[in-house]
C-alpha cells in the first residue's frame, strides 16, 4: 500500500508535500502498521530510551528571568540531524537557547548550534564592553556559559571557527549599536556569510558538508521581561500561560513556519525574482522543487551565484548538484523573522521544539500536557508510580506528580503514545522499535526544550522594582 501511494505521488505529481501525504497515510493506518511483528519493549526499556538524552538545569541567581529549563532529544536519522544549545550570559543576567533542525545531513545544524548564540551574544552586548573584552584577547567562549554541551570540533575546524569569530567581532566593534532584534538578525546573517566564506576559502570535507547541508533555527533570548524570538524555517516556540480567572492553561504560538503554507513567505520569495519565474521559483510546494523551507542557514546551492557553483561545487559533486531553473540566485535567506514579547507573571513556560515534535501534538495540546504535568490535574494512572512522585523544585507553587520528572521527556512520551485514554505504552513501544531503515517514515528527529520563567523576577520587573529579590 505504501509503495502504491509513493508511486502515485511521483507519477501524478500530487499538489501536496510528499512528507505530509506519507505522514497522513501512516497516521490513519497506524493500527495496521502496529500489527507488524515488532518486539514489545518493556516499560523499563522504554524509560531508558526516552530518558537517554534528557537534561535539567536550575538557575540559582535570583535576578535571572529564567528559573530553569529541561530538554530532551530522540533521533530518527542516524546521525540525528537536530541539535540544541542553551547558555547564560557572563556579563549580564540573561538566558539564550536554540533548537536547530538540519536537513541533507547533520553538519550545518551541528555547526550553527555551536556558533550562532556566540555570534548573537557578541552583537547584543554593549559595544564598549565588547571592546574591553577584545583588549583582553577574548575568544568565542568569553561571552556565554554553555550547558550540556557534549560536542566539539577537531582542532583544525575549531581554529578556523575561532579565526572567523575574531574577524566578526572586529567588524562588529566599529559598528553603531542597533536595537536588540536587529542585532540578532545581523548575527544570523553574519554567521551564514562566514559559513559561505569558509567553504570557498578553506574547502575540505567538513566545510563543504556544512555548505551543502542546511538547518532551520529557533532562538529564544530572555532578558528582564523581554522575550526575543528569532526563527527561520519550521522549529516552533509556544508560550504557556496560566489564566487564574478561568483556571485554564493558554497557548500562544510565537513563531511562524517559513514554507509554502505561509502566503506571506511565498509572496516574499516571488517578489525577489522576475515575473517569468513565478512558476519555477516555488514548485510542488518547495523552493525550486527541492527545499521545503524558505528560510535557512547553509544550503548554499540555493544562494551562491552560478559562477561560484561552477567553480567550487560542480568539480566536487558533479552537475547533479546544480538546481533546475536556477536563474537569479539567491533564492534562500538566513534572515530570521523576529518577535518581541513582554513577559507577565501569568507566563509560566516556553516550549521550543523541532517540527518532528509538532507533527504529533498541537501547541494547545502541548501546553495543556505541561500544565497538567505541573499541576497534576489530569495525569493518567498508567503514567504514575509512587516511587517516582517528585516535584520540580523550580516550579514553586506548582507541584508535579507525574511519572516523568523531566517535562520534555513527558512531552516526548505523550507525543508518541497519546490516546483517548492517556498515554498508551504499546504505542510508545511501537515508535521506539520501528527498524532504522524505515523509522523516518513514521517520525522525524524530535528535540524539545521547556523553559520555566522566574515568576518572582518577572513580577518585580512588572511593578518596576529595581531588583528581583
TrEMBL record:
SUPFAM superfamilies: PP2C-like. InterPro entries: PP2C, PPM-type-like_dom_sf, PPM-type_phosphatase-like_dom. It comes from Glossina pallidipes (Tsetse fly). Residues 66-453 form the PPM-type phosphatase domain. The lineage of its organism: Eukaryota, Metazoa, Ecdysozoa, Arthropoda, Hexapoda. Pfam families: PP2C. One of its GO terms (cellular component) is mitochondrion. It comes from the Eukaryota. Transmembrane segments: none annotated. GO terms for molecular function: [pyruvate dehydrogenase (acetyl-transferring)]-phosphatase activity. This is PPM-type phosphatase domain-containing protein.
